[in-house]
Every structure is written in structure tokens, then in C-alpha cells.
Amino acid sequence: MKDKKFSDGFLWGGAMAANQCEGAYDIDGKGMSIMDIMTVGNSSKRRRATPEIDPQEYYPNHRGIDFYHKYKDDIKLLKEMGLKCFRTSIAWTRIFPKGDEASPNEKGLAFYDELIDTLLANNIKPVITISHYEMPLYLVEKYGGWKNKKLIDFYLNYCRVLFKRYSGKVKYWMTFNEINSTWFVPAISGVKISNDDPKYLQVKCQTMHNLFVASARAVQMGHEINSNNQIGCMVLTTVGYPKTTNPKDALAADDYITRGTLAFTDVHVRGHYPSFVKRMVQKNHLELDITDEELLDIQTGVVDYIGLSYYSSSVVSSEIDKNADSSIGGNFSMGLKNPYLKANEWGWQSDPDGFRLILRWLGQRYEIPLFVVENGYGHEDEVLSGHIIHDDYRIDYLRKHVNALAEAINEDGVDIIGYTPWGCIDLISASTGEMKKRYGMVYVDLDNTGKGTLSRYKKDSFYWYQKVIESNGGEL
């Protein structure tokens, strides 16, 4: 791998999210977010959580991994690992507890002042996601979430505070985490609607439009406040291979990537809706509230780069497969098992070649920089005597994906800013609320029931990644 070169300025990093790591859900003026009412369980159970807190239930995000109080020690670990950047998010409800206030909560801002300054003092660049699955619960209960256009102004008020407060300190921003996840799981954006609602498609389309407008206006605002800001979108990506050589399976696989991912990056990068989206709206006679001014904003507020998550791939068929054992799911996307790939306990199939394909497709289609801000392997870890954790399975996964990343850069000519593996420190799972689905290179002593000391221990992958960064990808 010594011939696999990365640029001198390549940003090796790690990624976490405020709602999954900070904890401290009700102190220093923080309001309730949609994740604060989520219990432990499968993703459908977490989505069915009610606004009332049940004292008999365990809410893992309330404590997280207590990053709110332990961030200074955690940043020391990140510096020791050699990170050049750290991707995290800001909790909307720390800044605006309800979401619709005129003035921000200074105690919330003070926390991020210290967090960002600590990162910079350790020569770690902050990469900030403005909204990462943590919408204020009040905005859901009063306004119905992102299906309501009023949220655009609330969000922009929030963005304005962040852009001004951290101007010159934060260069890399992303407007929404995995924005296309809202299409698959509207509850992620606080939208309450059942699949059998006759207006289900219309509500989803209106919700996505409102998010696109908010993102585009935030990009324009961020550039006006500081022209050095680099503001990107962020999409979840996966590959769906045709199940057979049947041309209909090929069409289904193309739909899988085009309608599941590229439709969203098209709007962010090209500044307009693709023709098949317009046709879908016409064909279904959807009555959407879309103005010429909003379309102009989408055209003007195009992003500087594409942030993306990639974990696994699947198989796509044009026919419904009734064999339940053949279905897999990963990161809010569904498909069929691939017999050529291995899956982890949660059905996510490791596929570094699919990673390279995604990077090719996005790089060649848009010709703007990409930023891989999530990639990793969830697995249960065993702690041996002396707090030793051998996680060769994680090292193997990351090694193969970094190799694919190098090939995309050197063989395919894709422009990539950096790489921030997901959950560099163990954290709460967004989909299940579990701790046992661990991604980190630093172990956190906490189990699925909330028991543990919260002590941190370095895994074998910590030292492996340390060498990768030190050698700038030369030693894998």
C-alpha cells in the first residue's frame, strides 16, 4: 500500500453525532429532541416512541456516552490517534430549546464554544453537521415537523447564529445529515404520517422540498457571512446490484441508486429537480406548495461538496421476494442478501468494491469534491483482561475501505477531501439505541441497559488507525 498516495492535506478524522454521544439531555437549558424520547429496541420501536417519558423505560440518548462532560479527555484520545479533523453535530435544542425562539440559549453556545476551541487547540479541524437527527420535539408537536414551511425560517435563524458565532473557526459545514433518510423514514424529520395515509407521497414530497429550500438558503447565508465557508450536503449511499441478468432487474437497480440517492444530490449540486421527479409529481397529481422564489433559491444555493455515508450494499430485484430470510437492511435502506458478501449481526454486508463504485458515480457525475464522513463496521466487542480489545474484524473492514478510497482517488481520479470513520468512540446506535453495536476505535464501558463506568479503552483498531494517519495512508 505504500504506492497508494493521499494528498498532504487529506483530512483523516472520525465522526460522531451530538444526540448519540453528548447525553446531558436536560441540563444548561437544553430542550427535548425527537431522539430524547427514543427507547432501546429495533428501529420501528424507536420510531413509535411517545412524547411522554416513561420512568420504566430506558432512554439511552439521555446519557449517551456523557461526551458533554468528558469531551476534553475524549479529544485527548483523538489527538493521540492523530486525527486531523473531527466531524460532530450541534444539538439544535441546546441552542434553541423549542426551536422557534428568537434568541439563542447562551449556555448551549458556551458548550460548543469550548468544544470547538478545544479541538482547534489540539490542531483538529471541526467539521460540523448543523442538523443530525435531533429536531426539537416542540417543532414536531406544534408544527408537524418539516412538512410545515414555517420550519425553514426557524432553521435559518439557527444557522445564522452558528455561522456568525463560529465564523473563522469552522470551515466545513453540512446542512442536514443523510437528507435522503427522510424519504425512507419521515419520522427522522419529525413528520408523523402512516404509510397507508392517502396523502403519504404528497407529504413526503413537500417535506423534502422544504428541506431542500432550507439547505439552499443556509448555503447562501453561510457564504455571505464568510466566503471561506465550505458548505456541503450529506447523503446516505449504498449500492444495489441487479439480482439477475434480467433487464428489469437492471432497471430496478438503477432506480435504487437514482431515486434513492442521486435524486437528492442532483438537487443539491445541479440546483434543480431531475425530470423523473417532476414526472412523478405530475403523474400522481400531487398538490405541492412550491414557489418560483424557492426554486430560484435551490438553483442559487448549490453546495460546495458532497458529504456521504457508506456502510454496505445489497441486491435488488424487480420481483417481490417472499423469502423473509433473503432480506437485509442497513442504515435505513433495504434490499436482498448478496451470496458473495458477508454480513454482520445486523445484516449489513461489507462491500469495499461497492464503496469505490459509489465514489466513482458521485465523482464522475458531479465533478465536485466528496467528503466521506461516515463509514464503519458495527460489531460486538469482547473485553479481555487488562481492558484489551482485539477487533481484527473492524480493522479488516476499514483497511479494505481505505484501500478502495485510495483506488478511487488514484485510479479513478475522484476528488476526496477526507475520511471520517463513523463512531471513532463507541456511541449510541441511532437505529436501535444499542451500545453493543459498536463502531468505535475507543471502547466505552456501557451496556444496552445503561450500566457501566463509561471508562474509555483503546482497541487494537485505535493503534492501527494511528499508523494509517501517521503514514498518510501508506501503511494499512
From TrEMBL:
<protein>
    <submittedName>
        <fullName>6-phospho-beta-glucosidase</fullName>
    </submittedName>
</protein>
<dbReference type="InterPro" id="IPR001360">
    <property type="entry name" value="Glyco_hydro_1"/>
</dbReference>
<dbReference type="GO" id="GO:0005829">
    <property type="term" value="C:cytosol"/>
</dbReference>
<dbReference type="Pfam" id="PF00232">
    <property type="entry name" value="Glyco_hydro_1"/>
</dbReference>
<dbReference type="GO" id="GO:0008422">
    <property type="term" value="F:beta-glucosidase activity"/>
</dbReference>
<keyword id="KW-0326">Glycosidase</keyword>
<keyword id="KW-0378">Hydrolase</keyword>
<dbReference type="InterPro" id="IPR017853">
    <property type="entry name" value="GH"/>
</dbReference>
<dbReference type="GO" id="GO:0016052">
    <property type="term" value="P:carbohydrate catabolic process"/>
</dbReference>
<dbReference type="InterPro" id="IPR033132">
    <property type="entry name" value="GH_1_N_CS"/>
</dbReference>
<comment type="similarity">
    <text>Belongs to the glycosyl hydrolase 1 family.</text>
</comment>
